[in-house]
Design brief:
CATH superfamily: MetI-like
Largest sheet: none
Number of helices: 12
Helix content: over 70%
Shape: globular
CATH class: Mainly Alpha
Amino acid sequence: MAKTLALNDPLPQRSRIGLGLVPIIVLIGLWWVFTHGAVEERTISPQILPSPSEVISSAPELVMRRSLFYHAYVSLRRVGISYLLAVAIVLPLGIGMGATKSCKAMFTPVTTASGYIPIATLVPLTMSWFGTGESQKIFFLAMAFAIYLLPMVFRAIESVPDVYSRTALTLGASRWQVIWRVLIPVAMPEIYAGMRLAFGVGWTYLVLAEVVVLEDGLGALVAQSQRRGPREHIYLVILTIAMIAWIVDILWEQLGRWLFPYKVRR
């Protein structure tokens, strides 16, 4: 008799890959159906949704004439710098909020209020502070990262069971030793998971950051293609963003498996 899988039992790798391909295949199939045939016979106009073959055939122009790889490098560098800036601010603040009641009381109102701020409203704010150059894009993305990551770091530290810190204090550890040698190591897998999720935020708001001044970056390519065409390049750039984010997420996952092997579910 075949083994019955429980609700949370892990799937074999082949099953996970196969199931992951199903929605992609369905989406591409629907895309082909709605854009197949002559222009006047299509369900959806090519001005709205070009066919898969039209999108693929426009790739050489995007790569060669419009320097896709250069713009991808600019966006990746921009996201990386913004992320590092946010982490440098958020990690000590989140750890302090989770470890000490006074720090929590001081910054919780600001943290709670920032969670309700629409990220788009930060664009004019950062423009008034930093102008419309590179600094504006960096700090806008850094603020978006920080708003998302801070509560996750704080909750990871705060959720460490009290038994760990109480045991350390009983054995004679100081408060700083409890923070550095107990709270942070125990919470680090959850902090790392939050950092991995937060990194995706940069790609979510990348277009919003780069359309202020259409100079470079993948977001600028999307805006330029929407205004002047060709429309096929919009979908290619979106696919490029998705592929970069997917590859980076795989790297995050592999690093997490190496750092925290005891957290990996088999």
